[in-house]
Amino acid sequence: MAGKTLKKSATIAKATTTMMKGKSGANETKGGGDPSELIDARIEELGDWRGKMLGRLRTLIKQADPDVVEEWKWRGVPVWSHDGLICTGETYKNVVKMTFAKGAALQDPSRLFNSSLDGNTRRAVDFHEGEKIDEEALKTLVRAAVTLNKSKAQS
């Protein structure tokens, strides 16, 4: 198991050190695997509640928007986009943080946003170990972010 984790870590490290800017503006990897594989590797590498939480959040994002594009940016941050950035999935020691790029412009009737509340643009949801996800509310928030991105793309 340790050798497998080290191999995955090496894949992530190699990919993040060989990032290059693509024409679309999205970070692409050069010889390091596609972003979805790197996100798979990150989830496996974590190997604890954070990996499970990140994996579940990823599934919900894909359910909310089957056309979502997965990206790997900023030296190892999973990113989901559709006509612009929707959100990121950052992992820390005690929290998995889902940051919505334009969260301040989104309606949040279920009051999921519980972090980064003071900014003018972003909003985040911090998930802690053992916390239950309001799955329907989260999918609604993702769909609202996609709708906002589409409206800005058409302007």
Q: Describe it for me?
A:
The protein is α+β, with helices and mostly antiparallel strands. Strand 1 and strand 2 form a beta hairpin. It has one domain: Aspartate Aminotransferase, domain 1 (Alpha-Beta Complex), CATH 3.90.1150. It is built from four helices and seven strands; from the N terminus they run αββααβββββα. The strands form two sheets. Strands 3-4-5-6-7 form a five-stranded antiparallel sheet. About 17% of the residues have low confidence.
Overall SS class: alpha+beta
User: What is the mean predicted local confidence, pLDDT?
Assistant: 84
CATH fold naming? Aspartate Aminotransferase, domain 1
Helical content class: 40-55%
Which CATH architecture is right? Alpha-Beta Complex
User: How many structural domains are formed by the residues?
Assistant: 1
Unreliable stretches (pLDDT < 50, length at least 5) are 5-31
Rounded to the nearest angstrom, the radius of gyration is 15 Å
Distance between the termini: 50 Å
Strand content: 15-25%
Strand order of the largest sheet: 3-4-5-6-7
CATH class: Alpha Beta
Tally of alpha and pi helices: 4
